[in-house]
Amino acid sequence: YTIKASSIGVPDTFFTATATYGAAVAMIPSAGLNQTKPILSPLDVPFTVRIVDIGDNAVPLKNIQFAITNKPSGDTSASLSTTLATSDDSGKAVTQLTLGSKVGFYTVKAMITTLEATESQEIIITDKNGRKGKKPTREPVTFAALEATFTAEATYGAAAVLASVTGSDQINPTSTTLDTAFAVTVKDIGGNFVPKVPVKFAI
User: Fold this and answer.
1) Is-above-0.90 flag for pTM?
2) 155: part of which helix (H) or strand (E)?
3) From first to last of its 203 residues, what are the pLDDT tens digits of the chain?
4) How far is residue 58's CA from residue 89's CA, in Å, rounded to a whole number?
5) What is the enclosing helix (H) or strand (E) of 66?
């Protein structure tokens, strides 16, 4: 900022002052929301958050933790490109999610955690004579100061497995119709059912 002091008949005088960014007050999701891809695929757009101060100025050098907080039952393969990132000069930090093997929704949370001073607690102690009493103690408390949430959906992949379900090993007289129809399931590599796949039966 430049401030000018002036008066009639004398040269102007100038002052300068520099404003720096303030404390981080908000974490804003800026890219990567609500994407959908087949199972086991990396998302096209990385999850991106922007850290800003009260004047909406970018806040760099903030450590942001990323974590997968929810995923479909049975999945063990979903992953993030990084779980800890530092905001850059534009206040942004990114991670990329690779979806797991199960169809459904995956949730990733970005957090700046702060260690609060302490929290008062009481614990029960027993002396050598067996008498019980309370002893005050103070424990550090960590809480999420700022956070943002992203959700992505995994859809089924290409057909990979064809398995018989019913109809095998039947015995009937000649020229009769079997009691149970032959049935198969079609699944992808993650074991998810794949609909609308043409299946041809032939003798």
Assistant:
1) no
2) strand 132-155
3) 899 889 998 999 988 988 888 888 999 999 999 999 999 999 999 999 999 999 999 999 999 999 999 999 999 999 999 999 999 999 999 999 999 999 999 999 999 976 444 445 555 566 667 666 665 555 555 555 899 999 999 999 999 999 999 999 999 999 999 999 999 999 999 999 999 999 999 99
4) 7
5) strand 63-70
